[in-house]
């Protein structure tokens, strides 16, 4: 009897309610990673095509999350699907020895990444930044890494220091972002405020002889580097025997085909890639100077300086084939002009809607990265982000989700190469309604 009632109740539920009941029992917080959404906007997606996604109840969304930036060609781009399908049929995975596609992609990456004399494969962006730090330590014989407050370089223990601090200051001491982190991670990671060369110089003057590398995002979340900032870091690094690592996991092949290095005209010693490199699959890389990357040459295993690198999925041929297809599409004329123009129009016209409704926010963008922030002017560092009205930001973003836009509340978002005029029109209509609801509450 009770069983029949439970069955009848389940039949009345939507597909997403049914799946969330399962997710609630099987997954922590019924979520993925560190994202959990309020119950009334929890979504379970089933598929995507181009710039749109659908949930399991058939609702359609314009996708501005874009697989956290990996899907620069939108969902299921025919060239990427074809390349991945053909490669799965040839062999989904090969370990230990090279495969032909991984070699072809390596040649392409060395040719197209400005700082790349060589590349080394990894699997995720986090793995790439962890290896870059290890290589920098091995190369310089120094232990400490300087990172910036509020910068995200992935999920490993050396990356999650002062990434989400609730208070700024007390430089260069970092704050552990997670329980379970060894104390060694906070004592070897030094923290500076973003876009502040004077503060970096001060820390380097004091600790330079222990600093192996400065790692930096060229656009820190949504904060653009000041034009002179990256060049200034290059100079400080050169003067103090410190390596400059630009984390291009987001900006690589996105700000421009040459990534942040071309956009800002700066030459790092190492750069880390993921997301677009990987095409949404398990592949990332470290690119840069051959004399540094050669430290992981397996022929030197057991010798002085050899730096350990290994991973089951390194050079995965399906992700490599998909990435090659993606790079072919991205290098077609007009791709970046379209993306950047769409982001310009989107932000200019969104700003007009916000202003019309007297919503005190700015539509902030660099290239195809954008976000609506509740502040008056472009942020310069993490302190500016903390000083902004984040509750209001999340409230508006939540309304946008209810209006058919996939944005994660409070998180930076992406334009893709396949966004259309209709997307723009629907986005602005959704924003108009969201602002009206926002002002009523
Ligand atoms: C700048 C940056 N670096 C590293 C990472 C980590 O990449 P992954 O999530 O693939 O490990 C991310 C992920 O968002 C990122 O934005």
Task: Kindly report how far apart the N and C termini lie.
Answer: 44 Å
Tell me roughly what share of residues is in helical segments. Answer: 40-55%
Beta-strand portion reads 5-15%
- Work out the radius of gyration: 22 Å
Q: What is the assigned CATH homologous superfamily of the largest domain?
A: Type I PLP-dependent aspartate aminotransferase-like (Major domain)
Low-confidence stretches: none
For the secondary structure, the number of strands is 16
Provide a count of the helices: 15
What is the approximate shape?
globular
CATH level-two architecture of the largest domain? 3-Layer(aba) Sandwich
> How many strands, what sense, and barrel or not for the largest sheet?
7 strands, mixed
Biggest sheet, spatial arrangement of strands? 4-12-11-10-7-5-6
Bound ligands: pyridoxal-5'-phosphate
CATH fold group of the largest domain: Aspartate Aminotransferase, domain 2
Q: How many domain units? A: 2
User: pLDDT average, as an integer?
Assistant: 96
CATH class of the largest domain: Alpha Beta
Q: Structural class given helices, strands, pairing?
A: alpha/beta
Describe the structure concisely.
This protein has helices spanning 2-12, 15-26, 78-90, 100-112, 125-140, 183-188, 197-207, 227-239, 259-264, 290-293, 317-330, 335-356, 382-387, 390-402, 421-440; strands at residues 45-49, 52-55, 60-63, 118-122, 144-148, 189-192, 211-217, 219-220, 223-224, 243-247, 270-273, 284-288, 362-366, 369-373, 405-406, 413-414.
């Amino acid at each position: 009897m009770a069983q029949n009632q439970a069955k009848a109740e389940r039949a009345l539920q939507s597909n997403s309610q049914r799946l969330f009941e399962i997710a609630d029992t099987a997954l922590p917080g019924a979520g993925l990673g560190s994202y959990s959404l309020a119950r009334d906007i929890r979504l379970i997606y089933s598929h995507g095509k181009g710039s749109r996604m659908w949930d399991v109840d058939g609702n359609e969304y314009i996708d501005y999350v874009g697989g956290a930036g990996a899907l620069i060609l939108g969902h299921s781009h025919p060239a990427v699907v074809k390349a991945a399908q053909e490669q799965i049929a040839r062999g989904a995975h090969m370990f230990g020895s090279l495969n032909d596609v991984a070699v072809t992609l390596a040649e392409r990456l060395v040719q197209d990444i400005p700082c790349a004399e060589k590349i080394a494969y990894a699997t995720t962006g986090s793995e790439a930044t962890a290896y870059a730090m290890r290589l920098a330590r091995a190369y310089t014989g120094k232990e400490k890494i300087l990172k910036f407050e509020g910068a995200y370089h992935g999920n490993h223990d050396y990356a999650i220091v002062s990434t989400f601090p609730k208070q700024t200051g007390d430089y260069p001491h970092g704050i552990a972002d997670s329980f379970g982190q060894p104390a060694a991670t906070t004592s070897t990671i030094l923290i500076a405020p973003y876009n502040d060369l004077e503060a970096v110089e001060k820390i380097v003057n004091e600790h330079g002889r222990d600093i192996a590398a400065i790692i930096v995002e060229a656009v820190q979340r949504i904060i653009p580097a000041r034009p002179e900032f990256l060049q200034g870091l290059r100079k400080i690094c050169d003067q103090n025997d410190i390596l400059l690592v630009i984390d291009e996991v987001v900006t690589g092949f996105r700000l421009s085909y040459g990534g942040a290095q071309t956009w800002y005209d700066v030459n790092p010693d190492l750069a880390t890639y993921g997301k677009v490199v990987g095409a949404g699959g398990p592949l990332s890389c470290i690119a840069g100077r051959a004399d540094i990357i050669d430290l992981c040459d397996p022929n030197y295993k057991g010798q002085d300086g050899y730096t350990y690198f290994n991973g089951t999925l390194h050079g995965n041929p399906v992700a490599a084939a998909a990435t090659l297809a993606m790079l072919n599409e991205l290098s077609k004329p007009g791709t970046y002009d379209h993306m950047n123009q769409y982001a310009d129009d989107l932000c200019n016209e969104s700003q007009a809607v916000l202003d019309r409704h007297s919503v005190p926010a700015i539509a902030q963008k660099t290239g195809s990265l954008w976000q609506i922030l509740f502040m008056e002017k472009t942020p310069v560092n993490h302190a500016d982000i903390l000083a902004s009205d984040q509750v209001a930001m999340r409230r508006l973003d939540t309304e946008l989700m209810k209006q058919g836009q996939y944005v994660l509340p409070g998180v930076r978002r992406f334009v893709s190469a396949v966004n259309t005029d209709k997307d723009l029109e629907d986005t602005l209509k959704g924003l108009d309604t969201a602002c009206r609801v926002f002002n009523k509450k």
